[in-house]
Amino acid sequence: MKPAVVVTGISGNLGRTLAKQLHQTENILGVDRRPFVGRPKDIEMFQIDLRKKKLEDVFRRYAVKAVIHMGILHDPRMSSEDHHSFNVVGTTRVLDCVAKYNVKKLVVLSSADVYGPSPDNSNFLTEDSPLMAAARFPSVRDLIEVDMLAHSFFWRHPQVETVVLRPVHIVGPTIKNAPSNYLRNKRPWRLSGFDPMVQILHVEDCARAMVAALKPGLKGVYNVVGPGEVPLSAIFQELGSQPRSIPHPLARPLLSTLFRYRLASFPPEELDHIQFLCAVDGSRWVKETEWKPSHSMRETIRAVLGE
User: Fold this and answer.
1) Among the listed residues 236, 234, 169, 232, the one whose alpha carbon sits nearest the alpha carbon of residue 197
2) Which of 134, 181, 214, 242 could hold 141 in an S-S bridge, CB 3.0 to 4.6 Å?
3) Where are the domains of the chain?
4) Could you tell me the CA-to-CA distances from 279 to 112, 144, 162 in Å, in that order?
């Protein structure tokens, strides 16, 4: 068979966007515990939990030339134990298969969220900045651990071209993460006295970045940014939102209560993102891949609403 690219987490909205771009040029083996609704006929699908031994059957049966690992669970309502098990144990299984079956390329999708928004952050954090998100976001610990597992794999297996991507906030019409859900609100909260600069990336550009990461010879850790930075207030203006100003000492306990009773879709820790700076420097990625996002800032913002 033609050598294939294994894509974990392919059944999610980002995974389907990636599959749409990648299957035009590559033979794809999709792995996800969820079904792939609307799967193209030329993509072979394996409905497998990454933690199970069945994962190895995919690598044993097929010639795998690359792996794009994006099978990371983000569910703020799931227990920390289940989160850790799925994300960390699942990632460990994937890395073990890559090493055992001599896969030449590994792309791991992390996030710029691993740096964490903080009042102490400098402008434009580089890839060498410490991963401090867990200090204020306990729920991000396993994402940081996944990032560090990939980083350690990079050094322990130099024969594998390992690429770790840390994209900024991913937004799009089908994306249901915290940033997209927040920006879809007609009356979103804003914290009185704060208007941080925000970096967002269109879901299609994130998929393009993962495809670009398969480039032969490319390896390392890269921040991936979109069309630039913009104040949060400018995003509200473009979307026609009417934000409600909340004094920040009251916002966290109020959101905690709303989240507990399922009256809010994101946890109180997310308030840090609309209060403090977490802007990253994507120049390394631009330099080594000649990266240019295909969507303008206006298009990226409007994509939240499906426009």
Assistant:
1) 232
2) 134
3) 4-305
4) 9, 17, 24
Q: Give Cα 196 distance to the centre of its chain.
A: 21
Q: What is the pLDDT of residue 260?
A: 87
Tokens of 213: 């990461």
The whole-number pLDDT of residue 66 equals 98
**Distance in angstroms between the alpha carbons of the first and the last residue of the chain:** 40
What pLDDT was estimated at residue 77?
A: 65
Quote the CA–CA distance of 172 and 254 in Å, as a whole number. Answer: 28
Instruction: Write b or e for each residue in 49-63: b if 16 or more Cβ atoms lie within 10 A of its Cβ, otherwise e.
Output: bbbeeebeebbeebe
Across 44-203, the runs of DSSP E, i.e. the strands, are 44-47, 64-69, 105-109, 161-167, 169-171, 189-191, 197-198, 200-202
196: CB partners within 8 A, 6+ apart: 117, 231, 232, 273, 274, 275, 276, 277
DSSP 85: I
Q: Torsion angle of alpha carbons 103, 104, 109, 114, nearest 10°?
A: 100
